[in-house]
Design brief:
The chain is built from 13 helices and 17 strands. It has helices at 13-21, 50-59, 99-106, 137-145, 211-243, 247-255, 269-282, 287-301, 305-310, 312-325, 363-371, 380-387, 394-406; strands spanning 26-29, 68-72, 77-78, 83-84, 89-94, 117-119, 129-134, 154-158, 172-177, 183-186, 199-202, 207-208, 346-350, 355-359, 377-379, 410-417, 420-424. The strands form five sheets. Strands 5, 6, 7, 8, 9, 11 and 12 form a seven-stranded mixed sheet that branches. Strand 16 (410-417) and strand 17 form a beta hairpin. Helix 7 (269-282) runs antiparallel to helix 8 (287-301) and helix 7 runs parallel beside helix 10.
């Protein structure tokens, strides 16, 4: 029997949004009574001022009671009068106890900075907090050196020493929202889906993130990636060892449910199935066939795969994999309204020489911001539609290609989606 869902009190989106805009936060909306962004995970309309809030609610009145999302980014946030980079929000989203304590223990000469902090589960898990910082030139450069540029968020830094859940995932330690092209957390005053209210723990100004803290994150993330690489190396060795067995020997081991007869370990089942589902989804395979493949592949290739696909937890895991792997065929992400991207030319006066200088946010910069909401795989036709460009014009084709490459996409001329070449981001690490 499923547990009854808690009744979530209504949220006044407008008042909470304005309260956070006054703090110079960039905000957006979630779907009603949910943590998911209004346009899907990690997709949002950026709202910068009161007028933007009113325009958004006029177009989307159903969001009047939605949670407010506070957005961070190491990329560019566009405003009507400027482009912001340094000073964008970087939010440490702590999911487990011990993270702050570890940082402090490994930096005894430093004091934990006092900055705006929100608890996401104040009643049931006080360790879950959002610690707000402002980006600096140092932090932006550091994240670029990690190989993400401004394209990928750094998320799901997991505790590999803890056992995996039914999805094969280790518990999460922390995320860094705004470490790449953009991420968000729920604003104080909103409600968690378990009914708890996001509550301010420290109501202080947001400070620039200290260099020493950035150095710690960089070192910790590199150690985590090294551990992941070692896990992958061992998994590959195991796979190669199993593949050297004769079919008869392998079948005998599988009948005994011996892990040495399966190329995928029990702990790697979920990540393996998710990777396969994403690969098929990016190449246009319907969700029905993806689900069918997963149900067939798990018993054949994964240790304890039969128990996985027949268990309630495993079935839920497969449904989750299929739900979040499938490419959005509705093209709903193309319906965004980019009011704040329509930057008109402005005239400034050089007071020294009395010369009038016209400045304009470049068209390429505007298109780069639009493209930050693109899915991992997108056809050329969809790109031209989103950019409002006529593909018959060679200059437009050149411009679109330059923007897509700047966003980290690569053109896959061998793969097609709806008869068009596909632009795709590199696979997740």
């Amino acid at each position: 029997m499923s547990c009854p869902q808690p009744e979530i009190p209504p949220v006044d989106f407008r008042s909470i949004a304005l309260e956070h805009i006054i703090r110079d936060f960039v905000v957006s909306a979630t779907r009603q009574a949910r943590k998911e962004g209004f346009h899907g995970w990690n997709s949002y309309n950026l709202i910068f001022d009161a007028a933007g809030v009113d325009r958004f609610l006029a177009r989307n009145p159903q969001c009047a009671t939605s949670n407010v999302a506070v957005c961070g980014s190491a990329g560019m946030h566009y405003k009507a009068d400027k482009v912001t980079l340094e000073g964008n929000l970087l939010i440490l989203d702590v999911d487990a106890g011990g993270v702050i304590e570890q940082i402090q223990a490994e930096n005894p000469q430093q004091s934990w900075p006092k900055t705006y902090t929100v608890q996401s589960r104040p009643l049931t898990n006080a360790a879950k907090i959002h610690v707000y910082f402002r980006h600096t030139a140092y932090s932006i450069a550091a994240f670029k050196k990690l190989g993400r540029g401004v394209a990928k968020e750094i998320s799901a830094i997991r505790d590999l020493s803890k056992p995996v859940d039914e999805r094969g995932l280790h518990p999460n330690r922390y995320d860094l929202k705004g470490s790449g092209k953009g991420g968000f957390v729920i604003a104080a005053g909103g409600f968690h889906d378990n009914g708890e209210q996001y509550t301010r723990q420290i109501d202080a100004p947001v400070i620039d993130i200290p260099n020493w803290l950035i150095d710690w994150f960089v070192a910790d993330i590199r150690k985590y990636r090294d551990a992941i690489d070692e896990t992958k190396r061992l998994a590959l060795l195991h796979k190669n060892k199993v593949n050297t067995l004769s079919p008869r020997k392998r079948a005998a081991l599988q009948r005994e449910n011996n892990p040495n007869g399966f190329i995928i370990s029990k702990s790697n089942t979920y990540s393996f199935l998710r990777a396969k589902a994403r690969h098929f989804a990016k190449n246009g395979l319907p969700s029905k066939l993806i689900r069918q493949y997963l149900l067939d592949a798990a018993p054949r290739l994964c240790h304890d795969g039969v128990a996985f696909v027949t268990s309630e937890e495993g079935q839920r895991a497969i449904e989750r994999i299929v739900k979040f792997a499938v490419v959005d065929e509705s093209e709903g992400w193309l319906d965004y309204n980019y009011d704040d991207l329509n930057v008109a030319p402005s005239t400034t006066i050089d007071t020294t020489n009395g010369i009038k200088i016209k400045t304009r946010t470049s068209r390429e910069e505007l298109l780069r911001n639009i493209g930050q909401d693109f899915p991992p795989a997108i056809s050329t036709t969809e790109v031209y539609k989103a950019f409002s460009l006529d593909p018959a014009n060679q200059a437009n084709r050149t411009l679109a290609g330059r923007v897509m490459k700047a966003l980290g996409y690569k053109s896959d001329l061998k793969k097609k989606m709806g008869g068009n070449h596909i632009w795709r981001l590199p696979c997740d690490i």
